[in-house]
Write a structure and sequence with these properties.
Blueprint (H helix, E strand, L loop, with lengths): L1 H12 L23 E2 L30 H18 L2 E7 L3 H10 L7 E5 L18 E4 L3 H7 L3 E3 L3 E4 L2 H13 L4 E5 L1 E9 L2 E9 H4 L11 E10 L10 H8 L14 H11 L1 E4 L2 E3 L2 H7 L9 H17 L33
Parallel strand pairs: 2-3, 2-10, 3-7, 10-12
Antiparallel strand pairs: 1-5, 4-6, 5-6, 8-9, 9-10, 11-12
Helix pairs in contact: 3-5, 3-10, 8-9, 8-10
Length: about 350
Amino acid sequence: MASMASAALTAKINKPSFLDSPIYGAPLTTSNPTRSVSYKQPKPAISMSATPTPLPYDLNNIKFDPIRESIVSREMTRRYMTDMITFADTDVVIIGAGSAGLSCAYELSKNPNINIAIIEQSVSPGGGAWLGGQLFSAMVVRKPAHRFLDEIGVAYDEQDNYVVIKHAALFTSTIMSKLLAKPNVKLFNAVCAEDLIVKSGRVSGVVTNWALVSMNHDTQSCMDPNVMEAKVVVSSCGHDGPFGATGVKRLLDIGMIKNVPGMSALDMNSAEDAIVRLTREVVPGMVVTGMEVAEIDGSPRMGPTFGAMMLSGQKAAHLALRALGLDNALDDGSVKEMLQPEFILASAEDNEIVDA
């Protein structure tokens, strides 16, 4: 009897968990060496020594170099105002620093001759890409967007047709650290794009204000905005919300497009393909990318999978390059089919450019 009870207990312990079933995603552990955490760039060696690395200063006797408070104020003010002067007339303005906007800016920044201003209404750029979805940390990225992760050096756990980054913030912080170090990029966070500049039927820049001012127009007297002229505007405001989809909604308000149906219900398998395929220059001078594409075309939402955000941003960058008359990946013949009419959703036909 004892042996029978022992066998029953062993069988219960070794019974496969529901988490081991393929329908619940990849197991948390795997003996398959091809599914290890990996990326193409060389990994730095990790020291396993318990001996702390000597520091260049004595933590028991810290004394900072003296500074006047006015110097701190002048440094921040002078440099910020210099940036405002520099980017008052720029090549590309990107509205929204979520995953699509950051990917677009990263791709554009490869050309050191292009100046790129990023407008983000939040103090914290990154949009929804700090978490993978519903306050969960892991980020799922469907292939082939893992190639973009290889390029920027983000490690991931590779599965059959998707990869998983252990924390979404790893992607967001990595792309931001690489992007913001570029001398031709400036992020203006806590700044809103309140309106568009339109001249002769072409979007020619944005009307800006500090986000706290924009949020309090109803409680204060008139506080006029500022402006940034640009050769190309990329709108990546995301799906509808307090500040979402503001670019395409403004185009609708001023009669440059006919319809903004809003994104459709979730369907991951069609959503991501549609977002990248429909990323385009929707009116002269304005490219729409990311989930704002779903708003203008009524295509499905994708939920917590981020590959289309990255590749839509990349495509938007090359559309901006095309609009600037520069070499781009779309005109080499390899992906021209993405722009052909037969690939456009029927709902997109409702948004033909309205003659001014």
